[in-house]
Amino acid sequence: MVKLEKISKQFTTASDRLFVALKNIDLAIERGEFAAIIGRSGSGKSTLLNLVAGLDQPSKGTVSIDDNVLSGLTENDLALWRGRNVGIVFQFFQLLPTLTIQENLLIAMDFVDVVPKKDRLEVCKKLLEKLDIADQADKLPATLSGGQQQRAAIARSLVNDPPLIIADEPTGNLDTVAGNKIIEIFQSLSTEDGKTVLFVTHDMELAKLAGRLINIHDGQILEDTRKAKVE
Q1: DSSP secondary structure, the chain, as one string
Q2: Which of 6, 50, 70, 231 is 20 to 30 Å apart from 79, CA to CA?
Q3: Given a cut of 60, is residue 180 above it in pLDDT?
Q4: Which backbone phi and psi does 96 adopt, to 5 degrees?
Q5: How many angstroms separate the CA atoms of 36 and 166, rounded?
Q6: Angle at Cα 54 formed by Cα 127 and Cα 107, nearest 5°?
Q7: Are strands 86-89 and 164-168 parallel, antiparallel or unpaired?
Q8: Domain range holding 7?
Q9: Number of neighbours of residue 125 by Cβ within 10 angstroms
Q10: What are all long-range contacts of 78-85, with beta carbons under 8 Å and residues at least 24 apart?
């Protein structure tokens, strides 16, 4: 589903120095895979995730999602493609603070207009029930616990039924119990719903719960192992 070919990404620092974040990466993620990306800070994990999500463009190489070459899309087309095909979950939740949880989900549906308006409230209800926060639908994000806010963010990422879920340090602001619950949700999305899930984490124990472990070091893939070897 996800294919990166000869990917390199360079940045110019504030002091006009060239920083190479990714170096000649080749990577393929199959549909329905549950994969974790690990590595030290500055290793290129989040840069890689941003390229897959279409939030950034590579300096060299191509990123293809279901045979769509992202560099061939205009900014407007890329935004619409992302809204329909990628659910993004951030470390800091990124819920709109003045909207209720349900309204946060509805606005995500309004943006791409995939779900018929008559069905949107029902979609919200089912997703919030699935993530065990239906009783929080009419509350503002600040009134929820960190784990509940992250569940709400996951629900928002799912409202347009995207085939690809991307999460950047989704458990970074959560305690161990809440963090484990979030990873269990991702496991379920992969095994039961057939979603392709790609997440970045610093936590090796959480990473081991994924079906595939991709270790990045200094902008290159150091190790790429699937479940049997991870265990």
Answers
A1: -EEEEEEEEEEE-TTS-EEEEEEEEEEEE-TT-EEEEE--TTSSHHHHHHHHTTSS--SEEEEEETTEEGGGS-HHHHHHHHHHHEEEE-TT----TTS-HHHHHHHHHHHH--S-GGGHHHHHHHHHHHTT-GGGTTS-GGGS-HHHHHHHHHHHHHTT--SEEEEESTTTTS-HHHHHHHHHHHHHHHHTT--EEEEE-S-HHHHTTSSEEEEEETTEEEEEEEHHHH-
A2: 6
A3: yes
A4: -70, 120
A5: 10
A6: 35
A7: parallel
A8: 2-230
A9: 14
A10: 78/54, 80/112, 81/54, 82/53, 82/54, 82/55, 83/108, 83/111, 83/112, 83/114, 83/160, 84/112, 84/114, 84/160, 84/162, 85/162, 85/163, 85/164
Give how many domains the chain has, as a whole number: 1
The predicted structure's pLDDT at residue 228: 58
Give the per-residue pLDDT at 121. 96
Who has greater pLDDT, 60 or 91?
Answer: 60
- pTM greater than 0.85: yes
Percent of the chain with pLDDT over 70: 98
CATH number at residue 84: 3.40.50.300
